[in-house]
Amino acid sequence: MKVKTILVSQPEPTVENSPYFDLIDRQKVKIDFRCFIHVEGVSSKEVRAQRVDLSKFTAVILTSRNAVDHYFRIAEEMRFKVPDSMKYFCQSEAVAYYLQKYVVYRKRKIYVGKRTFYELTPTIKKYKTETFLLPSSDKLKPEVPKLMNELGVSWKEATFFTTVVSDLSDLRDVYYDILVFFSPSGIKSLFENFPNFEQNDTRIAVFGNTTVKAAAEQGLRVDIQAPTPETPSMTMALEKYIKEANKKK
């Protein structure tokens, strides 16, 4: 069956050169973007209940832009002035760049990983005298605490924000040829919003092994998967599939 419409369960890209826009132009398909999940901050009272005293930490590990936003939000709510001496360990360059929203970059001690949390750990290990805070969501990947414990550093994880299912009731009678998912939470949102969802001819595209597993557990047929050696990005995987599906018979 040909592909004409795609729903991506993420926010619409804000950059003009997004590969999704190139895909629209090249393959003449309609792509809509919609967050299936969103983030809500927990209160400073809830953070205190986790026995978190911000003044006790000399370093912060930031794994996402959400972590940056909610760390500084909680600091403000607690009336804690983040000292200039604070060290920031950012999982990626994108997170480090986003940190400039809150601090003067050149005056701070900022350490940057490549992309994954694992790639940041050698840098963290060099600073064994620091006390690390890891502000995270309620969906922290289980390998993160495992890796931190293996480093032998003083650290604490605390939930600063939670992942919440978005209301998608307005999509009840809307049909798409392909639904694109990037996390198990997105799959969960689909079935919480539409408990009687039947896949039928809808193609399901998923990114990452945990998302594949979540789709399979819900009885979904996965038609498009990334990353693979041939298609390392979702847009590449989609384009490859669309070219095949839309070939003139």
Could you please describe the fold and organization of this structure?
- The protein has 249 residues and is an alpha/beta fold.
- It has 2 domains: 112 residues, 3-Layer(aba) Sandwich (Rossmann fold); 124 residues, Rossmann fold, CATH 3.40.50.
- Helix content is 33%, strand content 23%.
- The strands form 2 sheets. Strands 3-8-7-4-5-6 form a 6-stranded mixed beta sheet. A 5-stranded parallel beta sheet has the order 2-1-9-10-11.
- It is elongated.
Write out key terms for the chains shown:
5-stranded parallel beta sheet; alpha/beta; 33% helix; Rossmann fold; 249 residues; 6-stranded mixed beta sheet; 9 helices
The helix content, as a percent range, equals 25-40%
How many discrete structural domains? 2
The counted number of beta strands is: 11
The major β-sheet equals: 6 strands, mixed
Mean pLDDT metric: 94
What's the architecture of the largest domain, going by CATH? 3-Layer(aba) Sandwich
Radius of gyration: 21 Å
Low-pLDDT runs of 5+ residues are none
Query: How far apart are the first and last residues' alpha carbons, in Å?
Result: 11 Å
Using the coordinates shown, work out and report the CATH topology of the largest domain: Rossmann fold
**SSE topology string:** EHEEHEHEHEHEHEEHEHEH
- CATH top level assignment of the largest domain: Alpha Beta
